[in-house]
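Weekly sync, protein design subgroup
Attendees: M.S., D.O., the rotation student, P.L. (late)

Item 1: inverse folding check
M.S. brought a backbone from last month's batch and wanted to see whether the design step gives back something sensible before we order anything. D.O. pointed out we never logged the input encoding, so this time it goes straight into the notes. Structure tokens as presented (331 positions):
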């Protein structure tokens, strides 16, 4: 087996652009709500919505291409594509479609599902392939089209979710810049946030019966998810920092899953991280599930807030329930 440097670096970022936006005022024409009600409770002012011409494949491919270009690579240099998503175009997988779309013909590709934690889980998974010398250049994509599975008559959930895609390139490096991580799951809390399968019995022949059905829209217990996040996210970040041999004072940027502005502020307060070091694009994008962290990262890199050498503490949390954190040095 060919061996590569065991260190891991995040060298490029990218995201996809969606032109259509759905504002809080727009939503107030659909359900009983208002811009003030949504903004004060979530921090969200608008969200981007995929149109009929958009697909998860196309958005994920656009984000991946932009990340590959920033890393000064060509698609044929990519060894592996990991697509974190809960809303694939095809339940059998969409990553291989992205592989074709971007021309990464040497790359293996697979989907990974961990909902809003998906990008962090995929990033850590990619690192293991590099550290064991299997692959050298990996694209990690977080992409979700939650508008496909939103009940637009449910005020508790429809105000939260949007669509999007973001990506990073992870490369082998002599110096390891993925400094620490921690991943967690608790299936006993699965009922708090669901996109469940509903089936009906269909007799076939004799005593043989099959079950066929569909997936229902998203349901969520917002109060329980909030309690879970403000309790578990600071804890998992502190564990990842411990593995990295760092403390909260070493964090230059706190980059959390963009679920709710109040969660971001509560976690920052628990960790004693100043709010000016918390990256938030909540107002413009809403909750884009696995896409939220890489989109926010890409925006902060491209507007020069995140500089080479900056220590970023990132955490994803959500359905499963799953949560995790990764501490990395950008560049």
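Designed sequence read out in the meeting:
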């Amino acid at each position: 087996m060919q061996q590569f440097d065991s260190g891991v670096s995040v060298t490029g970022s990218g995201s996809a652009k969606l032109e259509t936006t759905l504002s809080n005022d727009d939503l107030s024409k659909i359900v009983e709500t208002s811009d003030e009600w949504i903004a004060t409770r979530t921090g969200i002012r608008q969200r981007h919505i995929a149109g009929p011409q958009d697909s998860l494949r196309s958005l994920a491919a656009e984000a991946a291409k932009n990340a590959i270009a920033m890393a000064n690579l060509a698609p044929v240099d990519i060894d592996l594509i990991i697509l974190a998503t809960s809303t694939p175009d095809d339940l059998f997988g969409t990553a291989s479609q992205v592989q074709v779309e971007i021309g990464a013909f040497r790359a293996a590709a697979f989907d990974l599902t961990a909902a809003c934690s998906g990008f962090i889980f995929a990033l850590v998974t990619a690192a293991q392939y590099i550290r064991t010398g299997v692959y050298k250049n990996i694209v990690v994509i977080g992409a979700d089209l939650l508008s496909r599975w939103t009940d637009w008559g449910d005020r508790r959930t429809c105000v939260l979710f949007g669509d999007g895609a973001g990506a990073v390139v992870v490369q082998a490096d002599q110096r390891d810049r993925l400094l620490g991580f921690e991943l967690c799951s608790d299936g006993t809390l699965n009922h708090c946030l669901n996109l469940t399968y509903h089936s009906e019995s269909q007799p076939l022949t004799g005593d043989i019966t099959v079950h066929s059905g569909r997936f229902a829209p998203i349901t969520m217990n917002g109060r329980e998810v909030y309690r879970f996040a403000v309790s578990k996210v600071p804890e998992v970040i502190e564990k990842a920092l411990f593995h990295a041999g760092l403390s909260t004072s070493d964090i230059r940027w706190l980059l959390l899953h963009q679920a709710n502005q109040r969660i971001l502020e509560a976690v920052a307060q628990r960790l004693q991280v100043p709010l000016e070091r918390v990256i938030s694009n909540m107002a413009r994008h809403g909750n884009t599930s696995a896409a939220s962290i890489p989109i926010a990262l890409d925006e902060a890199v491209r507007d020069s807030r995140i500089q080479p050498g900056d220590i970023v503490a990132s955490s994803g949390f959500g359905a499963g329930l799953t949560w995790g954190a990764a501490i990395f040095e950008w560049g």
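Discussion: The radius of gyration is 20 Å. Residues 180-187+219-329 form a domain with the Peroxisomal Thiolase; Chain A, domain 1 fold (CATH 3.40.47.10).
Action: P.L. to compare against the previous round before Friday.
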